Amino acid sequence: MTPPALRTREDCARRDAEDPLAPLREAFALPEGVVYLDGNSLGALPVATAARVRGVIADEWGNGLIGSWNAAGWMDLPRRVGDRIAPLLGAGAGEVLVADSTSVNLYKVLHVALGLARSRDPARAVIVSERGNFPTDLYIAQSVADACGATLRQVEPDAVVAALDASVAVLLLTHVDYRSGRRHDLRAVQRAASFAGVLVVWDLSHSAGAVPLSLVDDAADFAVGCGYKFLNGGPGAPGYVWAHPRHLEHIEAQGLVQPLSGWIGHRTPFAFAADYAPASGIARFQCGTPPVLALAALDCGVATLRAADALGGVPALHAKAQALIALFIALVDEHCDALGLALRTPRDADRRGSQVSFAHATGGYAIVQALIARGVVGDFRAPDLVRFGIAPVYTRFVDVWDAVAHLRDVLASGEWRDPKFEVRAPVT
Ligand SMILES: *Cc1c(COP(=O)(O)O)cnc(C)c1O
Question: pLDDT for 364-374, tens place per residue?
């Protein structure tokens, strides 16, 4: 759906002025003069975060010292922040745990999912994932397969469901692809997998907070995801884990133990028992001591996003993002024609997440650098993608207009060919 009225920058400014979600942007400390289109990689800083983290440091840590584990509720933060995230996933209270990184959570959850699948059918020994999945997902899947005597099979994204034969135990799928922004139909894939006797581990890193999710209603199996992308938790924020309650019961009944059985996941950590006995429920996925400062920042990030609840929540944010992406694509079609960009994101709003990507045969990296020099921050994803994240909680229609205007200028002038834009930094 391309808003036909947005023919000029003034049209976009008017659309922003009429946007009921527009005030949410004021809760973010965005620098002047920057069009930030990388909130899918590192969410922007909420205004509230600095004061909250300062308070945790000065009051809770400085004055409360070790007593704050109890008095300030530090020990419960993984559950409390999980409860704040839960509605974004379509999960219930007490079902989501915040801990570790997405990579580590993947290791724990895949291992348990594999054990559960094999407890039902020992002949199943394959983990299926899609070729081109985010590298950490494939690396971790390989290491779980190696540790458990299973095999990782990578298939094309469109062939995922067809690959779920009787040898497959677990399907590891990223809901929204980090390169193209293509989105799997979670409910349909989950249903097909369940029908085939396969458990699914969903990576929601590029979905949660940007795409409506209903994990419980869709009878999803397991999920993990990132805290520092659309959840605005800050650099290196911990990730989250969810398992459908029906599985937690089976995991307990089977005596399955997650492989990183640290003391904080113990039933009674402060009994300092000699033997490991997992906590019940999702808490069994904890390993070590919670990162309190990072959890406080993530709590603020999620709370800032959840301010949208009163304005329609994620469905309203998602609808706005789709309008922004449609505008982005329409403007590129119109103004950047024959400038070498090829759209890599589905035109169908039902098949994409909250970003838009274009391939450029030779200039991808340098184009992104030239845009950053002009204050338009997107990112480059090897081998050839120029990627723009749309975080509807703070991205405006004028931002899209300005981004495409700069993109057109950078391409039409050949500005990106300046060798200084080819200098590669370690992080792209
Ligand atoms: C961002 C992202 C990750 C990040 O994992 P970390 O352990 O936080 O580095 C993992 N998987 C996917 C699909 C991602 O998009």
Answer: 999 999 999 99
Give the 3-state secondary structure of the chain: CCCCCCCCHHHHHHHHHHCCCHHHHHHECCCCCCEECCCCCCCCCEHHHHHHHHHHHHHHHHHCHHHHHHHCCHHHHHHHHHHHHHHHHCCCCCCEEEECCHHHHHHHHHHHHHHHHHHHCCCCCEEEEECCCCHHHHHHHHHHHHHHCCEEEEECHHHCHHHCCCCEEEEEEECECCCCCEECCHHHHHHHHHHCCCEEEEECCCCCCCCCCCCCCCCCCEEEECCCCCCCCCCCCCEEEEECHHHHHHHHHHCCCCCCCCHHHECCHHHCCCCCCECCHHHHHCCCCCCHHHHHHHHHHHHHHHHHHHHCHHHHHHHHHHHHHHHHHHHHHHHCCCCCEEECCCCCHHHECCEEEEEECCCHHHHHHHHHHCCEECEEECCCEEEEECCCCCCCHHHHHHHHHHHHHHHHHCHHHCHHHHCCCCCC
Select from 182, 205, 260 the residue to mutate for testing ligand 1; criterion: most ligand atoms less than 8 Å from CB: 205
Whether 202 lines ligand 1, by a CB cut-off of 6 Å, is: no
| CA–CA gap between residue 352 and residue 346 (Å, rounded) | 6
Q: How far apart are CA 290 and CA 148, in angstroms?
A: 28
Q: pLDDT tens for residues 157-204?
A: 999 999 999 999 999 999 999 999 999 999 999 999 999 999 999 999
Cα 51 to chain centroid, rounded: 25
Q: 136: CA distance to ligand 1 center in Å?
A: 7
Using the atom order of ligand 1, give the atom closest to the CA of residue 206.
15
Ligand 1, pocket-test mutation among 38, 42, 103, most atoms within 8 A of CB: 103
pLDDT in tens, 234-250: 999 999 999 999 999 99
